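Q: My labmate handed me this sequence with no annotations at all. I'd like to see what the chain might look like in three dimensions before we decide whether it's worth expressing. Could you predict it?
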Amino acid sequence: MDFAFGAEDERFRGEARTWLDEQVTGRFAALRGLAPGQAGRAAAHREWERALGAGGWIGLGWDRTHGTYGNRAATLTQQVVWAEEYARAGAPARLGHIGENLLAPTLLAYGDSAQRSRFLPAIAQGEELWCQGYSEPDAGSDLAGVRTRAVRDPGGGGYRITGQKIWTSLAQEADWCFVLARTEPDSQRHHGLSFLLVPMDQPGRIEVRPIRQMTGTAEFNEVFFDGAVARAEHLVGGAGHGWQVAMGLLAVERGVSTLVQQIGFAQELGRVVEQALETGTAREPVLRDRLVRQWAELKVMRWNALRTLGAARDPGAPSVAKLLWGGWHQRLGELAVEVRGAAAALGPMCWTAEHPYELDASQRLFLFSRADTIYGGSDEIQRNIIAERVLHLPKEARR
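A: Here is what I predict for the chain of 399 residues:
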């Protein structure tokens, strides 16, 4: 496909750059480098989402077949321009990306007009935040093992949800959760599942427990549902069709967003190269070869992402993309501490009661990227998908 930036793209770039330069100041500039929803800064992150919404910068890539929802139109190249300028400006990490980039395209593809009218404007305005209720203790990469149940209430017509989700990103800040639950008793695997939109403000029925990670932050959570209520009109795609909706959402998660993600990767690689030059480790042949390999592999990932955007739907493309970037980012995290040598073992400041666990950017990258080959579908699961759905090899025996 032709992916050159034209005159309209550069005009769009100028508008985006001007807006970001004016906005990423003061309290928003102070959010640079902080995890979304980090303790004590969640309110400021929410303000940033509302500022993005007021500027029309949320939902640039949404399909406009069913109308507009307060966001501006943007071509694919303009979406990439926005991502480049966002990264250049060092703008805050997003709290609203799950609603914007995952749920919204799913509602546009599988939702009805009432659902789109109810939820999309609030996402576009940065007013409502979402989390994803997929993984469970016994259904992580193997998502079809979901056990969370949703029982139809014969009186009110809604659903009562009981079960546990885990590794739920930003659940502690979310207003809503889209939940994959089993609505047909005795159903197995991908049959009998439904996709429900669930309000998180249900005291006594929903409990969120943050999971503190090696980085000291807690972006992920356990979520317990004990009779939580979902309204009947918030069932997406019809009862028992949740697997189709869930897979459609995952295709979005690993589609255009992969290309945008690589812009951040390039910045991280640039910082690692700078540190290698500063410390002199770039002169070591083996380490220099690894840095060059990281650069070359990032270029390959970019061209692969462009290839899949311009091609017919490929059932293996999301899995190939996940395999490529997961391992690449994990190796970058290892390089980030190796180029610094023994200094990588030291924190940026002395630990105190007020700052009990301080890490610098390289250390956070190293620790957080350990999970890259696990979350979102482990490498083993991705290879199974490619083998079975693309190469049509015999399926692995499952209990």
